[in-house]
Specification:
The structure holds two protein chains of two kinds. Chain A contains four helices and no strands. By secondary structure, chain A is an all-alpha fold. Chain A is globular and about 45 Å long. Chain B has no helices and 15 strands. In chain B, the strands form four sheets. In chain B, strands 3, 4, 6, 7 and 8 form a five-stranded antiparallel β-sheet that branches. A four-stranded antiparallel β-sheet of chain B has the order 12-11-14-15, with no helix packed on it. In chain B, strands 1-2-5 form a three-stranded antiparallel β-sheet, with no helix packed on it. Classes of the chains: A mainly alpha, B mainly beta. At the A-B interface, helix 1 and helix 3 of A face strand 6 of B. Chain A: Keywords: Coiled coil.
Chain lengths: 141, 206
């Protein structure tokens, strides 16, 4: 590709938009998965990393870890369109120099579905949390 | 031997983004004398990924969902090729939020507000092709049924609920009005088409 234009990373306004899009997509994908996999119990064995120690957006979101989870669970989800959309949005937030974390998905079928459901549930909560208007310091939830 | 006739350099590249559908680019000239193959090279995800789109004898190409998501900044370069050679366009850059186009809003209710004179409330559905992350700007046009003169009011909505409302005030009492609505993402240069016209009548003056 012959490219002379250097594209800047998303600015704060675009980052906020990406998070809004991710919030909507997370609900949509969770709903779709719950419809296709009825009756799955919620599991407490698995945890999706959500926030980093850095308070400043977008570094406050552990987008590279979340991206690694989605790239692993992608093949276990029928709706590839919404999943790929989420992966694309997460790539925009991910800073260039982050390590790719290793995610292992349970191999047993039922356990694998519980894992996927838990990740999607936690991702939806994570996006709600990130999208909450910033509360002034000291104010309790 | 014959004279080599290269394709024209692709110019006037214009792109439109349809949310969660596609990014469609067109260019000129629309027609070439000889068979011409086009390769449209795109970068996306703020330059971190790239792909191509190909078309034959057609000055248009589309990149499809889910590899088109907003917000994003894409670059587009069009390569025209015929049997005599290749000609490239210059590189163009596109901020998808500036070129998003939605379908027209759908007004489904225009009714007087009970007890409030000279006002109607309009209800419509937020367009499906309007990005969740975009504030929308609207233009509402209205006229009395027996007038040809349109009046208009502009407003914005940040709210993403599907059902939206607007209270149009300052009207004549007990009069039938025709209304139509269009919208655009706040940063976009493309307005939707106008909605279907709807009529509604203000309450009688007591």
């Amino acid at each position: 590709f012959s490219h002379t234009l250097r594209i800047p990373r998303p600015d704060a306004k675009d980052q906020q938009k990406i998070i809004k899009e991710l919030q909507q997509l997370s609900k949509e994908l969770l709903e779709l998965y719950q419809k296709s996999e009825k009756g799955l119990p919620e599991s407490t064995k698995y945890t999706l990393p959500c926030l980093t120690s850095d308070p400043h957006p977008p570094n406050n979101i552990n987008s590279s870890a979340i991206l690694a989870y989605f790239q692993e669970i992608r093949r276990h989800i029928d709706n590839k369109g919404v999943t790929d959309e989420i992966i694309g949005q997460l790539k925009k937030l991910k800073s260039q120099d982050t390590w790719k974390i290793k995610v292992s998905v349970p191999t047993e079928s039922f356990e694998c579905k519980c894992f996927v459901l838990t990740i999607l549930q936690q991702f939806s909560k994570c996006m709600d949390q990130v999208n909450e208007p910033q509360r002034p310091k000291g104010q309790l939830r | 031997f014959g004279l080599a006739v290269l394709p024209h350099k692709p110019e006037n590249i214009s792109c439109i983004f349809y949310y969660r559908c596609n990014l469609t680019c067109t260019w000129s000239p629309e027609k070439e004398a000889n068979d011409t193959w086009y390769t449209v090279k795109r970068t996306y995800l703020y330059g971190s990924e790239n792909d191509t789109c190909k078309s034959e004898n057609r000055a248009s190409c589309s990149f499809f969902y889910p590899n088109v998501t907003n917000p994003d900044i894409c670059t587009i370069e069009v390569e025209a090729q015929n049997t005599d050679g290749i000609v490239k366009s210059s590189m163009t850059q596109w901020n998808l939020d500036n070129i998003v186009k939605t379908e027209p809003p759908e007004i489904y209710c225009v009714k007087p507000a009970l007890g409030v004179k000279r006002m109607v409330q309009i209800k419509w559905r937020r367009p499906r092709l309007a990005p969740i992350s975009s504030v929308l700007k609207y233009t509402l046009q209205f006229r009395t049924v027996n007038s040809a003169k349109w009046l208009e009011v502009n407003f914005t909505r940040e709210d993403i609920s599907i059902i939206q409302t607007y209270d149009l005030t300052g009207l004549q009492a007990f009069t039938e009005y025709v209304l139509t609505l269009r919208c655009a993402a706040e940063e976009s240069r493309f307005w939707s088409e106008w909605s279907q016209e709807k009529t509604g009548t203000t309450e009688e003056q007591a």
